[in-house]
Design a protein that fits this description.
Chain lengths: 169, 328
C-alpha cells in the first residue's frame, strides 16, 4: 500500500511515495540518498541508525515512515553548518573516538541529543539524586546515557572522552 | 515484513471499532516492539491502526494526590516528570532501567504494558512456541533456560514478561483505563495479565479492539521511599534476570507499610503479596526480610538453567529492603 509523505530532512523538505512497510531508516537511505544513518542490526539494538525525530533521538529502523508524515528529521549529516562541524563532531575527531566509523554518525547524533536531554535535567538510572536540578555528566553518566549505541570496535573510552569534553565546555 | 495497510483514524472510538472488527488488525503506538516483531514475521498484521496521536500525552494531577498518565506519554517523558521522580521514584528508576534513550523516546506508556516476551523461541518463527502458535509446543522448556520464569509458569509456557515499568506499576497498585467495543473500564495492573495455563497466546485480559488510554497512579505516601533494582547480564541496556520494585515505611523499627513486586521471574510483573503479608507489622530486620522473601519464593519452580533466579531474587529483595530501611 503506497502513501505519500513529506519529511523535513536536515532542513530540506522532501516528499516521497512509500510502501507502508518502509522504515524511516530505509526511506532516508534508499529513497532520499541520506546515508549518514547506518543500518546495523535493523532491530533497534545497536543505535547505528540514530536520528533526531521531532527533536528527540530515536532508532530510525523501528520507525515506520508512513506514521511520521510532516516530521522533522536531523541526521549526523545535518549537524554541521557547511564546513563548520558541530562541536561534538570536532571532539570525536580530536579525541580519536572511532575506529571503523560505521557507528559514528549514530553515536554523534545520540551524543548531541543526550547533551540536550541533560540540559533539560533528564535523569538516568545511575543518577544518585534522581530529582537533581542539574545533571553532572561524569563518565558513568555518559556511558549509561550512550548505552543504546554499540561500537563493535570498542572505541568507548574515547567516545566517552569526546562527549565529556563537550559537556564540560 | 508482510505487506500491510496503514490507517490513521480521527478518534479513539473509530480506532476501537476498526480493530475490534478485524482480527488481522493491530493498534500501532510507539512501534518499538511491534515493528521489530513484524520484521521477523512473528506478527503479521494486515492493517495497522495508528493511535499515537489519539491518546493523551499529558500527565495530570488528580484531586486526592494521584496522577493520571496519558497512554501516549513516552517512557522518557514519564521518567523525567518531576512529580514521578519525587513521589514515585521507583517508577522513574524502573523506566530508566529499561531499553535505551532512543527506544524510550518512541515507546509509550500504554505500549510498554503490552510488550511481548523476549523469550528467544517466541521470536524465532522456525521453533515451536505455544505463545506464538498455539498447540505447537514449547521449545524453551528444554532449551536455553536462563531467561525463563520461575513463578506462575505452566507446562505450555515458561516465558517472562519483559517490562520494567510494569513491575513498578504493579507495586504501586496502578490502574489501567481502557476503551473497548463494549465501552470504558478500569483494570488493576495486577489483574491485567492472564495466567499462561489458560492459553499463553493471549498475554492480557484485554479484548480484541480494547485500547489502553491512560494509567492512574493512586496517591501513595509510602511510594516516596521506593526504589527499583535490576539485575542483568550487563550494566545497561539488557533485560532483567531479576528485578525488584519496592516501597517501605518503617516506624519504631517495625514495617508499617510495604509494596513489593518482582520482574524477570514470571509471565507478569509479580506482586509479592505473600512477602508483604510476612513483613507487615514485624520488626525491620534482615532475618525477617529473608524469611519474607523465602515465603514468597517457596512456590518457585525452577529449571536447571534458571534455578539461580531463586536465590538471586531472594538476595535482591533482602538487599533492597535493607537499603530502604536505611533511607526510611
Amino acid at each position: 500500500m503506497e502513501q505519500k509523505i513529506t519529511l523535513r530532512v536536515d532542513g530540506k523538505e522532501r516528499t516521497l511515495t512509500i510502501d507502508a512497510r518502509t522504515t524511516l531508516l530505509d526511506a532516508l537511505r534508499e529513497r532520499l540518498g541520506v546515508t549518514s544513518p547506518k543500518k546495523g542490526c535493523d532491530h533497534g539494538q545497536c543505535g547505528a541508525c540514530t536520528v533526531m525525530l521531532d527533536g528527540r533521538r530515536v532508532t530510525s529502523c523501528l520507525v515506520l515512515a508512513v506514521a511520521n508524515d510532516g516530521a522533522e528529521v536531523v541526521t549526523a549529516a545535518g549537524l554541521a553548518h557547511g564546513d563548520d562541524l558541530h562541536p561534538v563532531q570536532r571532539s570525536f575527531i580530536a579525541e580519536d573516538a572511532f575506529q571503523c566509523g560505521y557507528c559514528t554518525p549514530g553515536q554523534i547524533v545520540s551524543a548531541v541529543a543526550m547533551l540536550r536531554e541533560a540540559e533539560e535535567g533528564w535523569p538516568s538510572v545511575v543518577s544518585e539524586d534522581l530529582d537533581a536540578d542539574r545533571v553532572v555528566l561524569d563518565r558513568e553518566e555518559i556511558a549509561e546515557r550512550m548505552s543504546g549505541n554499540l561500537c563493535r570496535c570498542a572505541a568507548y573510552v574515547n567516545i566517552v572522552s569526546a562527549i565529556e569534553k563537550v559537556a564540560r565546555s | 515484513m508482510k505487506p500491510f495497510a496503514y490507517e490513521r483514524p480521527v478518534d479513539v472510538s473509530s480506532a476501537v471499532t476498526t480493530v475490534a472488527g478485524r482480527p488481522e488488525a493491530s493498534f500501532l503506538a510507539g512501534g518499538t516492539n511491534l515493528v521489530d516483531l513484524m520484521k521477523m514475521e512473528v506478527l503479521t498484521p494486515e492493517l495497522l491502526v495508528d493511535v499515537r496521536h489519539l491518546v493523551s500525552r499529558r500527565i495530570e494531577t488528580l484531586t486526592g494526590g494521584g496522577l493520571r498518565i496519558g497512554a501516549g506519554v513516552s517512557n522518557n517523558e514519564l521518567a523525567a516528570d518531576r512529580r514521578i521522580r519525587r513521589r514515585y521514584p521507583v517508577l522513574s528508576q524502573a523506566l530508566l532501567a529499561g531499553a535505551s534513550y532512543q527506544l524510550r523516546n518512541l515507546a509509550t506508556v500504554g505500549g510498554n504494558f503490552l510488550q511481548r516476551t523476549r523469550c528467544p523461541y517466541f521470536r524465532d518463527v522456525t521453533m515451536p512456541c505455544n505463545k506464538r502458535e498455539p498447540g505447537t509446543g514449547c521449545a524453551a522448556r528444554d532449551g536455553h533456560q536462563r531467561d525463563l520464569a520461575v513463578l506462575g509458569a505452566s507446562d505450555s509456557c515458561v516465558a517472562t514478561h519483559p517490562s520494567d515499568m510494569a513491575v513498578a506499576m504493579a507495586a504501586l497498585d496502578a490502574v489501567v483505563h481502557t476503551v473497548g467495543p463494549s465501552g470504558e473500564r478500569s483494570i488493576q495492573v495486577n489483574e491485567l495479565y492472564r495466567s499462561p495455563a489458560d492459553g499463553p497466546e493471549r498475554d492480557t485480559v484485554l479484548e480484541r479492539g480494547e485500547l489502553i488510554t491512560a494509567v492512574e497512579l493512586p496517591a501513595s505516601p509510602v511510594a516516596a521511599t521506593s526504589r527499583y533494582r535490576k539485575v542483568r547480564d550487563r550494566a545497561s541496556y539488557a533485560f532483567a534476570l531479576v528485578s525488584v520494585a519496592a516501597a517501605l515505611e518503617v516506624r519504631d523499627g517495625s514495617v508499617t507499610e510495604v509494596r513489593l513486586a518482582l520482574g524477570g521471574v514470571a509471565h507478569k510483573p509479580w506482586r509479592a503479596a505473600t512477602a508483604e503479608r510476612a513483613l507487615l507489622g514485624r520488626p525491620a530486620t534482615e532475618a525477617n526480610f529473608r524469611a519474607a522473601a523465602e515465603a514468597e519464593l517457596a512456590a518457585a519452580q525452577a529449571l536447571a538453567g534458571n534455578a539461580f533466579k531463586v536465590p538471586l531474587a531472594r538476595n535482591t529483595i533482602v538487599s533492597m529492603l535493607r537499603t530502604l530501611t536505611e533511607e526510611a
